[in-house]
Design goal:
11 strands, 59% helix, alpha+beta, 5-stranded antiparallel beta sheet
Length: 538
């Protein structure tokens, strides 16, 4: 098949053109220069070229991609967003708000000064701050002028990525900050009591001898569980009828602080090396039975009723050691220890299925998307004012944030396994970018010829000025150290490549924690400011 035949095939078959654009865009995005690459955004650039050359893709792909993308973003961010606002509102959340607000103000001033159309200006705002959700919100709000949004985004995005990466790499060098030394200070100051450890303890406290282990109150300690007992020559799962005895060896799981208290209470730490049958006596079980949800471990009494101990709970990507007051929620992943037959009984009681951990509730996904789309259509406004709607970007995002935060609303579950969520999110993103690029590519050359180099200059300003102002604000006003400030700035600019540049220079998790705290706030604020810009520039 020659080039002319291939070209005709792409022109005649929009579905083939769609996946050809996505494949070539992802190949472009995988090209890395000094550790910097375009990632999924490479699809936008191949789509712009395809649109310029006259190719088309199936109708409705962009809308489908938009709702899938923002819904999955909301589910992923929901578990952290409201907590970040409440916990970090005075520091990293405010820093993110300031960064985005400055970017929005510069975009508005530049658009007024250069007399740019609203679509081009909001696209530059989204691209300079590397915010695909803001691009989605602007595209959906400006359906009649969406092509300009894509063009502006495509012009500003490359420097938005490169500028932040260069900033976080060069600034510490220019200011002579030793990131490793700062990281070492954090390690010295960090509360090591939060680490989860497993310790073998020898019982010597006479006050416990002859008492039932399950009723001794040790598990009432915050985040500490006795999971195994040494008998018959090996460590075996704890049974409800087991009693304390002199010199008995117990395996404890918990946070360092509580483990230390438990050791002092029971006896002393043992240095003996004992084997345990991890393969058959420990399982990860997923809670799917709604009747279990809302019960505390004390009410559930897994050891008394089922002969198993819950040593860890994984919820929303976070793993912690429970105590008797911990409430069990639907889709909690429980690390349980017990005999094989007891584990099977407990698994049946909580609704665990072998495929449940990695399965997606399609009914909840469909219902959640439906509610999100409906919410986006509801007019909102004060009496006498022009009502607005959240649209296809804001509605699904709001519903997903609530589902991600609460875990479930009625029978609709906000849990989507991480691999599935990331697949749907990426699929929705490339569908949306392909559609936006093809539509924008039609007028790409004419737009650049009309406005020239000024578009690139405005994009650089929207990227650089927030960075330059955010650093002194983070250091002087918010009292953040360099690692916290750099991570917070990356989160405020929603720049994962820049965070990668920092983490390649230090093993500290401080920048990552700051990024995670600032990112959800920036994500939502960017969408809101994109909407505000549209209102101001219309």
């Amino acid at each position: 098949m020659n080039l002319e035949a291939i070209n005709q095939l792409l022109l005649d078959q929009p579905l083939i053109a769609l996946f050809a654009i996505i494949a070539s865009g992802l190949l472009l995005g995988n090209i890395s220069i000094k550790g910097i690459n375009l990632g999924s955004s490479g699809v936008l650039f191949t789509a712009l070229l395809a649109g310029h050359l006259g190719y088309s893709i199936p109708d409705g792909i962009g809308t489908l991609g938009l709702v899938l993308f923002v819904y999955c973003v909301g589910i992923g961010a929901g578990g952290r967003f409201f907590a970040s606002v409440a916990r970090e509102g005075a520091t990293l959340g405010k820093l993110a708000l300031v960064i985005v607000a400055i970017g929005g103000a510069i975009t508005w001033a530049g658009a007024k000064l250069l007399d740019l159309p609203v679509d081009l200006a909001t696209g530059i705002f989204a691209g300079a701050l590397t915010s695909t959700p803001a691009l989605a919100a602007a595209t959906e709000s400006l359906a009649d002028a969406a092509s300009g949004v894509s063009i502006g985004y495509g012009i500003a995005y490359p420097f938005g990525v490169i500028g932040v990466v260069l900033f976080v790499q060069l600034l510490p060098r220019l200011l002579k900050h030793d990131l490793d030394a700062i990281a070492a200070e954090h390690e010295a100051d960090d509360n090591i009591d939060e680490r989860v450890v497993t310790v073998l303890v020898e019982v010597t406290n006479q006050n416990f001898i002859g008492k039932k282990i399950a009723e001794a109150g040790i598990n009432n300690l915050n985040a500490c569980q006795i999971s195994r007992v040494y008998k018959e020559g090996q460590l075996m799962p704890l049974s409800y009828g087991d009693e304390f005895s002199q010199g008995q060896l117990l395996l404890l799981v918990g946070r360092s602080k509580e483990i230390t208290i438990a050791i002092d209470t029971l006896g002393h730490r043992s240095d003996r090396q004992l084997l345990k049958d991890v393969e058959n006596e420990r399982q990860n079980l997923l809670v799917t039975d709604h009747k279990i949800a809302g019960q505390s471990i004390h009410e559930l009494a897994p050891l008394k009723h089922y002969g198993v101990v819950i040593t860890r709970v994984t919820r929303g990507g976070l793993t912690f050691v429970p105590n008797t007051a911990t409430l069990i929620e639907t889709h909690d992943n429980l690390t349980t220890v017990g005999r094989t037959e007891d584990l099977k009984v407990f698994a049946k009681a909580i609704g665990h299925r072998s495929t449940a951990t990695d399965s997606t509730d399609l009914l909840s996904l469909s219902a959640g998307l439906t509610l999100g789309i409906v919410a986006g259509l509801i007019p909102i406004g004060l009496p006498g004012s022009t009502p607005i709607t959240l649209g296809l970007a804001g509605g699904p995002l709001l519903v997903a944030l609530l589902l991600g935060h609460f875990g479930k609303v009625g029978r609709i579950v906000g849990h989507i396994p991480r691999p599935t969520r990331l697949l749907l999110q990426d699929l929705g993103l490339v569908f949306f970018l392909a559609n936006a690029g093809v539509e924008g590519g039609v007028s790409l050359v004419a737009t650049v010829e009309q406005y020239g180099i000024t578009l690139f200059g405005l994009g650089m300003l929207v990227s650089v000025v927030p960075l330059m102002l955010a650093w002194p604000l983070a250091r002087k006003l918010f009292k953040l150290d360099p690692l916290q400030a750099l991570g917070g700035i990356c989160g405020g600019m929603t720049s994962t490549p820049a965070l990668g540049a920092i983490t390649s220079k230090t093993d500290s998790q401080v920048p990552v924690i700051s990024y995670v705290s600032a990112y959800p706030v920036a994500l939502i604020v960017m969408i809101l400011i994109a909407k505000i810009l549209i209102g101001l520039l219309m």
